[in-house]
Structures are given as C-alpha cells and as structure tokens.
C-alpha cells in the first residue's frame, strides 16, 4: 500500500505526471504553478528525462508538440496569460491529433489580472481557446488527490483519443496542501502510436501535420474530429453527486468552489433543506445527461462560479426547460473566496423560490 | 555509360510546386544530398515550417513534423530531446525564422540544440505574396513597402548568419548562395559540413541560403538569379562565420 503524503496540489500533479510515465516537461515560470516545473526540474533528470525551461510559453508548447510527435509522454504547465500564448500550439496539436498534457493552474484576468483563485478561463478551456473549431478534454480537480489522479487520467485520455488534454485547476487546488495517496491506477488499454515520427528506416514515411489542401480533405478531417468529440461525450463524462437523490435544489460548481459549496450544502441539510451538489469533473465533455437527470428531479439549479458566469451557459444548455437555473458569481477582486456561510445564504434564498 | 549525376536517394521522384526559377528546389536537392552523404535519411526527422517550403514532406522521403509559423526550432527541440539518436533539421524561410520566430531560433541556438537549421533567405514573404521581410534590402519595393524599405522607419535587413555566430551554443554558422554553379558547389560543401556537425553531436549548426523568388520580385528567372549576386551578396556576405573545431 502506498503511504500517505502531505503535499501541495501542484506537486501532486507533477508526481502524477511522473507516475504516468511522463519524462519530458517544457515550461516557463508563472505564478501560481511554478511548483510544477520546480518539482520536475529536480525529478526528471534522475529518471533520464528532460526538463527544459523554454524561452516563452510559445516555445514550451511547441517543444511539447515536437516531443509528442515522437510518441513519448510529455507535458507543459502554465497559468492563464501563459495559456493564452499556448493556444496557437494547442490548436496545431488538436489539428495534427497529437497527445500531450497541459496543466492550467489558472489565475484571475483579463490581462495581467491577479494571482488569486478564479475560474474565468472556463470558456477558453472548454470552447477551444485557439482557432479552428476544436475541443480538448478538460478535467477539473477539486483536491490534492485529484490533482494526482486526474493527471494520470489526462495522459491516458490524451493517448486514447490522440488529443491534447487540459487539467484546469486554480490557485486554491494548486497551492493547498492535504493528504495524497500516490497510488497509480492501472492504465487503460491504449493503442499503438503508429502515427509517431521515428526516422522511417525502410518503412513508410510518416508525417504529422494539420495542413490539408486536397479536395475535401480538410472537411473530412473536421468531421472526423467532430466524431471523436461525440465519442468522448458518450464515454468520458465524469461527475460527482452529493445528496442529490431527493434534492429540491441542485447546487453545481466545478473545481475549488465545489468544495466550499459542498460544505454549504451539508449545512443546508442540517437545517432540513433538501439540497444536493452536482460537480462536473470533466468540463469537456460536459456531463450533460447526468446533470439533466439530477436537475430534472429537483426542478431548480443554482450555479456557483468564481467568475461572472461561464459554466452556467453549459448548465442551461444541458437542463433545457427541465429546471430553472440561477447563478451566483464571485469573480476575484474582493480579495476573498466566498465562505460556506455566504453560500448557505444564497442557497436559502434560492431554496425558498424552489418549486415545492 | 557511367552515371555521374543522379537524383539523391532522399529526394522523391516527383515534380515540385515551386515557381520557375525558384531556388527552393535547388536547396532541397542539396539538403537531400547531404542526407545521403551522411547516410542519415532513415533516421531523419524533418521539421517543416510555414511558407513556400511547407510541403517538404512531399519531396523528402523522410518522416516530418509540421510546425506553426516560426516555431520550428522549438518543435525540433522537443523532437531531438525526446529522440536524441535521430537526425533533426528544420527548413525555414526568412519571414518564418527572422520575424515571427526570432525568439525560438535564438534560444534553440543558444541552448546548443543538436539540430541543423536550413534558413532560406529570399528577402521576402514568398507564400503570402511578397510582403516586406526582416531581410528585405533597403530600398527594395515589396507589396507592403511600396515606396521601398526605409531604414529610418523599417530598420535594417537582419544578418542572421552573423547573429547566430555570436551565440555560445552555435557550433557552425555560414551563409551560401545557389545563383551560380560555383556557389552551388560551395553551398553543397557547406550544407554537408553543417550536417556533419550534428552527425558528430557537436551542437547547433546553421546555414543561411540566399535564394531567388522571381514571382514576388516581379522578375523573370534569369533576372532574379542575377539579383542574388548583384544586390544580395554585397549586403549578405557569403562565408563561414563560425566553425567550432572539435
Ligand atoms: C501565425 C501566422 N501568421 C501568418 C501566417 C501567414 N504566412 C504564411 S507563409 C508566410 C510567410 C512565409 O515567408 P517566408 O518564411 O519568408 O517563406 P517563403 O514563403 O518566402 O519561402 C506567412 C506570413 C501564418 N501562416 N501564421
Ligand atoms: S513564391 Fe517565391 S519562394 Fe515561393 S515558390 Fe514562388 S518563387 Fe519560390
């Protein structure tokens, strides 16, 4: 049995990457994620791996592109402004169907913004932040344990679907310390990387590219990518529910805010309010069906985010007319996260309006 | 009859899409020749850039990764670090390498990545229709410098081979041209030598090749070829600027 460790979320993600067999890391410093490159700059050389501090986030994502094209497991990490710079490379990787893991310990924006916890990169992460109309799987951990577990999962998804995968955390999950049991799960059955460049020898030439100029080639490519996203929607949704079975109000939120919301939901239960929590773990694919079911039973959904309203759009699309949706946002700037008491208050107000 | 001249093995037997009189085709040949000489074709991974050369996988019989505009040196860094036993080269135009990709080329060179960079300088952005490049000569008219490049406004043409030679990680840096048989033979020697540096694991090697773009210069192939010698070489001097001894 693995021993329990007491580590930061960022370290847990870096440990998860190493456990997943990632030996190549390319990055550029930015708060609040620099523990990741710091950890990997110490550990990867001991494992015959490579750590490169790139000249920029653009350099880093393209080094990841190059390494991934050879079939190895590789990773980069950054935070919001750096992720903006990586979007060009992410679009190219999505276009060329290259795996790779990108950790975004997001901070507040727009622009230079601040380094406090924020969820204002939801749109950028799940709607395809770069050009060309694509999606990448986005995973939203809410604990140190999940920083580890979901990083492992991210590498599997990347190889399985030949796609970049983003782990979307924020400074709360990145910087907090709690118990971690670093137990690498068995990996999923993964296909051979028959597309990876290797030096052709006497075999067929392999080309990794996103340029498709032949008649109908690009359209076919885009339909194929689209089909892949549909398979992900069928097979790869992850969500977590807490006391939703008899709930008359479903509270939902992702990542760090879901932890506070869960405490508030537990407090509401003690007051006798039938409230439940639904937490999407995958933000793309969004767990539409599971949410629609829980919301349909309750009739009312309260979305809580550390922004002015982004995931709430996907919630509305998922539940349609089956439930009434309201929103409570706390974008950064006030200097604090919402307290459980603050959220309990919001829950009480929304509960009173809930259809009885 | 003895055969004295043939297509390099690393080059596919296909027609190119390059315009008549374009030097990209000649340069492709020389690169393929160097691959053959060093026997690296089967372990080569080429990195294609954005520009008229993007289709190089259609001509070279090797594995290829395509890079975003300007990022080929970073992509090549990832490839080479993951697969140090492979031979890795990039092939980039002047818009690609000396404008949008300046950070990537300088830092890959400075880290001393064990890769080879073939830099094709035709003083213009070819593929997008002949706009001003960082290498456009002062006074040269292009579609975005219709009054001629103005030094006081647009700066001076960048001399990349000399710039590269200043960087600690660079083992080899040279400039050649392919406008005459004599220059082609010199270029052949230099590209072979640059490839040799990587084959021996001696660090970053860089070859700038002066090249004609008849289409965007608005010249016929012969005039364009002559311009390389008359206007480009006086400013972009040929030679080996750095050659680290073993
Ligand atoms: C980010 C980005 N900006 C601009 C372009 C458009 N573009 C395509 S090729 C090219 C110029 C290439 O010029 P050069 O590198 O000199 O190569 P040449 O075509 O002359 O061989 C540009 C600007 C692009 N593809 N990507
Ligand atoms: S546009 Fe210029 S660089 Fe491009 S193929 Fe034609 S001549 Fe060559």
Report on the architecture of this protein:
The complex is a heterodimer of chains A (356) and B (246). Chain A is of the alpha/beta class and 356 residues long. Helix content of chain A is 41%, strand content 19%. Chain A has 12 helices and 15 strands. Chain A has helices at residues 9-19, 35-43, 57-69, 80-96, 122-126, 144-161, 171-175, 217-235, 256-270, 288-298, 311-319, 340-352; strands at 5-8, 24-27, 50-53, 74-78, 100-106, 138-139, 164-170, 177-180, 207-208, 239-242, 249-252, 275-280, 282-284, 300-305, 324-329. Chain A has a 7-stranded mixed beta sheet, with helices on both faces. In chain A, strands 10-12-11-14-15 form a 5-stranded mixed beta sheet, with helices on both faces. In chain A, strand 6, helix 6 and strand 7 (164-170) form a beta-alpha-beta unit. Chain A is globular and about 70 Å long. The mean pLDDT of chain A is 96. Chain B is α/β, with parallel strands linked by helices and 246 residues long. Chain B has a single domain (24-238), classed as Rossmann fold (3-Layer(aba) Sandwich). Chain B is built from 9 helices and 9 strands. Chain B has helices spanning 24-38, 72-82, 94-100, 102-111, 151-154, 160-165, 181-199, 214-217, 221-235, and strands spanning 44-48, 63-66, 87-93, 116-121, 124-125, 131-132, 170-177, 204-210, 239-243. In chain B, the strands form 2 sheets. A 7-stranded mixed beta sheet of chain B has the order 2-1-3-4-8-7-9, sandwiched between helices. A two-stranded antiparallel sheet of chain B has the order 5-6. In chain B, helix 1 packs across helix 7. Chain B starts with 23 loop residues before the first helix and ends with a strand. The A-B interface holds A 24, 26, 50, 52, 54-56, 58-60, 62-70, 72, 74, 88-89, 92, 96, 197-202, 205-211 and B 41-45, 47-48, 54, 57, 61-68, 71, 74-83, 86-87, 103-104, 106-107, 111. Strand 9 (207-208) of chain A pairs parallel with strand 2 of chain B. Thiamine diphosphate (TPP) is lined by residues 50-53, 69, 93-96, 120, 122, 124-128, 133 of chain B.
